Amino acid sequence: MKRPTVCLILEGSYPFITGGVSAWVHQLILYLKDIDFVLYTISPSKDQTQRYELPANVVDHRDMVLSAAKQSKRRPSQVRALIDEVIGIHQQLLGGKAPELDAVIGQIPEGYSVYAEAIKSDAGWHLLSSRNREKNPAYPFSDFFWAWKSAHDMMFTVLADRAPEADLYHPVSTGYAGLAALCAKIRRDKPLILTEHGLYHKEREMEIRKAQFIRGYQRDMWTGIYNNLSRLCYRYADLIIALFEHNRRLQIELGAPEAKTRVIPNGIEVPFYSAVARKKKEGFHVGLVGRVVPIKDIKTFISMAKIVSESIPEAEFHCIGPTDEDPGYFEDCQILVQSLKLADRFHFTGRQDVREYYAFLDVLLLTSVREAQPLVILEAYCAGVPVVATRVGNVAELIDYDDRFLAPSKDPEKLAAGVRYIYEHPEEMKRIVEKNKDRVVRFYDRDMVFQTYGDLYRQHIGASVAGGQNQASEAG
Amino acid sequence: MLKFDFFRSATDAYRPRTANSALRAAEAHLLPIEACVYLGTSIKPLDEQPIDLDAIDQVLSRQQLDLDTNLLLIRILTKLLRDPDAEVALFAAESINMIENRYTTRIERLKASLQEKAEAKALRALARQYYELAQIHPGSIRNFYLREAFGYVKTLNKLKQLSKQDVVLTVRILLALDLTDHARRIIDQLSDRDDLTYLRLEMEVAFKRKDITAVQKLCDRLKPAWERLDEPSRAFLSYWFEAAH
Q1: How far apart are CA B177 and CA A326, in angstroms?
Q2: Which range among A131-140, A329-338, B90-99 shows the weakest confidence by mean pLDDT?
Q3: Region class of B210: left (phi > 0), else alpha (psi between -120 and 50), else beta
Q4: Which of A212, A339, A408 sits opposite B82 (nearest CB)?
Q5: Chain A interface, Cβ < 8 Å to B
Q6: Fewest beta carbons within 10 Å, which of A129, A256, A292, B62?
Q7: CA pair distance A14, A30, nearest whole angstrom
Q8: A282-286, A321-325, B80-84 — which one is most confidently predicted on average?
Q9: CA–CA separation, A376 and A374 (whole Å)
Q10: For A76-80, A439-443, A454-458, B106-110, which range has the lowest pLDDT when averaged over its residues?
Q11: β-strand partners of A7
Q12: How far is A64 from A161, CA to CA, in rounded Å?
């Protein structure tokens, strides 16, 4: 019997970049040994260094380079009709709707970039220039043109690309990966399952706000494009998976049909972390597991350490994670530690086996300003370590909405109060730790999560095959 | 007479978001001047409830914000950190990070330039950046940045490059660190104590030391020079003139 083939569509992650999403993809592939995977990756430039050794069940890997223009001798048969369709789609998108794309994508031959039609045809040029008159009449057209071109070139590349053959398409984000997936679904008539770890359009919006080179109306244009890419992907996905309820609600707000949405959390390897042998170490140890980068807000951890050290003299602090990603920020943190006279009790450990630290930490702290579903909290629970954290992503849900252990971002005093509570209530904490561990075992076991994905793959592929057979018999 | 009727009928027209873009549009005869007047005379304060996140975003999009604007933004954003809407709280946290990162990026750049040559200009700018960074931070981290700023003015002093503005900054750093005696000693050592800037500074030190009699005496010395004072100094002193007389 033919093994099912799933095409994972990945943008800026596995196997070229390490990190949360990449690790998840790698583990998923390793776990689902009876499924063949095809990787369809989207990269900003070619020849990127591969950071993972691909498992044996990865049967193919195709990399689409966004900046590479497509060339093909085949052209759309009816250019005018195609442009009219595109105009209609733009009007619907501007009205906040997710229009049907079947006709447009059906008319664009694989391998063909519609850039020429968009620029050289009268209708395409009229669409472009009228958009400028509408949105940007007071500024030079050249500014608008180049902003439009850089935004649309990448979409033209994706629309033109030939997706690998597969039984099911699974993008791990919306954006360009989502667009590639919906093209594949329309052209190949296969099911599409979308998983969003963070929310692509929200993350891009933040990057756009930070980018110095995107100004004024261009910010609105880029934000609008990313929102529309998500909206379109939601329309075409057969199943839309979020890691937690808040993100599922945001997906629905942007147009995801509620009936197609579902929450599947990330899980951890329960036996690996529950095997940690806890051993009390002299002093009171507070640890943060994470990279030393601004988004983790290590400076708030250091400020909190100063506050805690004044009331708990034996407290020691451990910042466990790589320090080489943002050397300037790391240097700042080191100077801050010295300046606050914490050098003898605050330790930057670098990358370590976290289980060695979970064995003796009295509290795990999380000070991030942005997270989706932080696995370190689950790891700590599983190993028997209580947690104090900022209220970001689904942290509140993981901490059972217990306000004693939650703080707003950038609030070292409230975090310190949480740490002190744990220090002062050891007996109560034993009960809470037990309860937390039980919750991880029941709801966040990685094997269970991946098994769910395996079941969903089979279910959707099966339904697709059955649907195809029915259509064939009806036609016959 | 301005006619704002066009707002009712211009549903499909270009809708500028800033007074600047509205002015451009008016100059190009794309919109009536009322569009610019409307945006340019909006008096809704940034910190008025409900907070307009778009307006905050628009201010934040400018790279070079002065200290007062940054302080206003931080005040608003710090409140928003506790907003029950997680997305608003996240917006606030990321925006605060953005403001901090702008300072740290400028500081890194200045430090890199110092590696090549210890120039007074870079030292001065570093002291200023650290001082401003301290203003936007509460708690223990604030003093850390103030001490960094003080380190750079000390270096300027060693190089005998201390300007009048550097002296002012030094005293303000010391006041922020609650080192009022140290600040007082610097004032006492000044050779030109009748300088208007130094008199105002001396007033700040006296006030911080809760020496209201000294503040009133300094008011009396400054009053005859009212015409020569700049606008911020007049605004600052008018309160004290009222109180003293």
Answers
A1: 30
A2: A131-140
A3: left
A4: A408
A5: 133-139, 202, 206, 209-210, 212, 215-217, 219, 246, 250, 294-295, 297, 299, 302-303, 306-307, 328-329, 332, 335-336, 339-340, 369-370, 391-392, 408-413
A6: B62
A7: 13
A8: A282-286
A9: 5
A10: A76-80
A11: A38, A169
A12: 7
Between B108 and A305, the higher pLDDT residue: A305
Spatial separation of the C-alpha atoms in residues B195 and B191, rounded to whole Å? 9
Phi, psi for residue A409 in degrees, rounded to 5: -60, 150
Dihedral sign, CA of A250, A254, A259, A260?
A: negative
What pLDDT is recorded for position A427? Answer: 95
Task: Tell me the H-state helices in A237-297.
Answer: 245-253, 270-274
Q: How far apart are CA B104 and CA B94, in angstroms?
A: 15
Closest to A159 measured CA to CA, from A88, A229, A222, A208:
A229
ipTM of the complex: 0.78
pLDDT beneath 50: ranges in chain B: 245
Strand, coil or helix: A168: strand
User: Quick one: pLDDT at residue A112?
Assistant: 81
Q: Do A410 and B21 touch (CB under 8 A)?
A: no
Tokens of B92: 């606030």
Structure tokens at A45: 């430039």
What is the SS3 assignment for A115-127?
HHHHHHCHHHHHH
Q: What is the mean pLDDT of chain A?
A: 91
HSE on the CB side for A107, CA within 13 Å? 16
Q: CA-to-CA distance for A429 and A438, rounded, in angstroms?
A: 14
